[in-house]
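Q: Got a minute? One more chain.
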Amino acid sequence: MDRIYDNVTKEILDEKIWLLMGEGIIKIFLVLLLSRIIIRIGKTVISKFFAVRLRSPIRVSERRETTLIKLLENIVTYVINFIALIMILEIFSFDVKALLAGAGILGLAVGFGAQSLVKDIITGFFVIFEDHFSVGDYIKINTFEGEVIEIGLRTTKIKSGAGELHFIPNGSIIQVTNYSILNSMAVVDVTIPNDGSVERAEKVLIDLLNSMEGKYEALVRAPEFLGIEKISPEEIVFRIKAETKPMHHIEISRILKKEISAALDSSGIKSTYNGSES
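A: Always. Here it is, folded:
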């Protein structure tokens, strides 16, 4: 018994074991440190590459570039981390080749039960390369609506107006409505009393709308006076339409109501409003 105890104690105190453990820990630390440095360098190279493309006459849209940058950064991170894991396993003397071969066979068996994962990845590729939507776009997927925060190969992250973060598997994306590609339209209905002030109100509105040309950055062109939309013995409804940059229709609708109210009030004409946006 004493001999066994002495042998165990000797092994514990053996300098070679401690040296090997210390060497292994140092190697693992260096692998992790090197992987972090390579990931950071890779992300910097990607950012620099797209920064150079900003000055190129041939380039894709800014929204698409943002999406591709995030995707490439994720791919670099996954690949480097996988290589670092393999190197750490080799430090622990694992037979990596046998492990990878076994993982391939196991993956083939598991693949039949992971069809949804494969579907998510394939759909993610099509979403990105067909440019259905990009990071920063305001979209609606199924019942979820909000700003796209990140597009991954498996999931898409959407932040709603209330601050909720939705993780949507790409494979479940059946229908997408993108509000950020085409210009939006703000429509405002102005109601005035039917008291004989129609022509005066029309002139006030037309002069006001023409003066708004170039006044607001979100306006594509001067708002358009469409004329009388409804008429009754008590009131008359004018309709005004304004083309805006994507997702600025609500902002311009509110500005129109404020400007129109001030212009009509200064002319002694009472008014009410009903606005719609598209």
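A: Residues 23 and 91 are 9 Å apart (CA to CA).
Q: Perfect, thanks.
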